[in-house]
Hints:
The protein is mainly alpha-helical. It has two helices and no strands. 72% of the residues lie in helices and 0% in strands. The radius of gyration is 24 Å and the shape is flat. It starts with 11 loop residues before the first helix and ends in a 10-residue tail after the last helix.
Amino acid sequence: MYQPQEQAPGGCRETLLLTRIAFQILLPGIVALAGVLLLVLFFFYALATYPPLALIPVGILAAVLYGIYLYDKRRHRDQVDEMGDDDMFGGLP
């Protein structure tokens, strides 16, 4: 009467695909954490060695934050251009 269908056993391709997807999600955060950790370590090393050198990691952090701001501003502007100027509320009547 009712015969359950046999499922194909999972192979290496599926495992590798899931692993790649997990790394694609996790890798940017891990790289950002490692970068901030290295920046903090360099800051304290420079502060202990020669205090004016501590301005270098502060400048790097400021440049990165400014770059993120410009990227987000450009992305937001592109989204507004796609929506159109007359559609201020996203299609609400």
